[in-house]
Amino acid sequence: MVIPLDNVVLTGACGGLGQALAQHFLATGSRVALVGLNRPVLEALAAQAPSRCRIYTPDVSDSAAMQAMAGDWIAQMGLTDAVIANAGVAGGYDTAQAGDLAVFRRMLEINLLGVATTFQPFVAPMRERRHGLLVGVASLAGWRGLPGNGAYCASKAGLIRYLESLRAELRGSGVGVLTVSPGYLRTALTAGNRFAMPGLMEPDEAAHRIAQAMVRRREHCVLPWRLGLLQRLLGWMPAAWTDALLLRQPRKPRVGEPGATPIPGLTSSHEKN
Predict the structure, then answer these.
(1) I want to staple 260 with a disulfide (CB 3.0 to 4.6 A). Which of 42, 103, 169, 253 is the partner?
(2) Which of 56, 152, 162, 184 is the catalytic position?
(3) What is 201-219 written as a DSSP string?
(4) Can you name the residues that pair with 182 across neighbouring β-strands?
(5) Active-site residue flag, 152
(6) What tens digit of pLDDT does each residue of 121-149 get?
């Protein structure tokens, strides 16, 4: 089944994958709501097709702000064909560090709660129209816990289960749910990684494959599929073996360490801990 994607809402439009997705849909003639926190980046994207774009800069975990965004977009551009919840943050985590609890909380707010607040205003209109697609960008890191990456893995594992639940609830309604599980993409979120990143993909290629999965009404999209297969194989190994293998790898930088990416909404005191 092939569906039109003439009207798209995209969060996380400032990041590497988000910009690639925005450029893809703008190039195909779609109307695109560009949701992110870096206004200059959003303005540069919108300049490619100003009559088909609107810029929004809410905190995706703020339900009132996301409802206002959705209401304005629908009023200005009409009902939405697809909502892509792409906003996300990443960072290392150490349970022994009290300051990292704030990192954990904020990561859950953005990576998990932010998807629900993004989808919520669009579900009823889509269901009433019996047409629409909800896309959640999860991660292969949600398939298995990784040492030093517990907050990110937990947020993405929770997202995968949330999307699974939502898909079951909407089955037969005409509204589809697509779970995207990327591996390593060449973006700011991976730039500081000190460990091997097998299957590293360019954002443009990932965006193209995600768009294909959307048009074909897929329910799952793994990028790249070979890394997904490797992840499955690791899951079949005894946990002690996999843990021993993973513990040899350098850990993802924590907030405040060299190579770490900033997490919006954290106070400076949290970032120093």
Answers:
(1) 253
(2) 152
(3) B-HHHHHHHHHHHHHTT-S
(4) 223
(5) yes
(6) 999 999 999 999 999 999 998 988 888 99
